[in-house]
Specification:
single chain, mainly alpha, about 75% helix
Length: about 100
C-alpha cells in the first residue's frame, strides 16, 4: 500500500485533482470491494491511516516550492519560537 501511494504521488498533479482524492480511491481499490482488505479491524485501519497520513504530509512538503512558502514563513517561525520559549519557561518554573 505504501509503495503504491508513493508511486502515485505525481499522479494527482498530472490529473489536476487533489492528492487526497487519489489516496481515497486507492483505499477503495484495496478495501473490501477491491482486494478484500477488511476495514473493521481497528488496528489495521489505524496503521494504514497513519501510513496514508505520512505519505500525504511528505508529499505536501516535497512538492511545496520556496516561492509558495516564503510569504507565510515568518508567522509560523515566530509562533514556533514563542511556543518553545513559553514551554521552557513553564517547565522551568514548575521544576524550580
Amino acid at each position: 500500500m505504501l509503495l503504491v501511494a508513493v508511486g502515485a504521488v505525481r499522479l494527482p498533479t498530472r490529473l489536476g485533482v487533489p492528492s487526497l482524492l487519489v489516496y481515497l480511491a486507492l483505499w477503495v481499490a484495496i478495501g473490501e470491494p477491491g482486494l478484500g482488505i477488511r476495514s473493521d479491524d481497528a488496528d489495521l485501519t489505524r496503521a494504514l491511516g497513519f501510513c496514508a497520513l505520512i505519505v500525504i504530509i511528505a508529499e505536501g512538503g516535497l512538492t511545496a516550492g520556496w516561492s509558495t512558502l516564503r510569504p507565510v514563513f515568518g508567522l509560523p517561525t515566530a509562533l514556533a519560537t514563542l511556543g518553545v520559549v513559553v514551554s521552557i519557561a513553564v517547565v522551568g518554573v514548575v521544576v524550580r
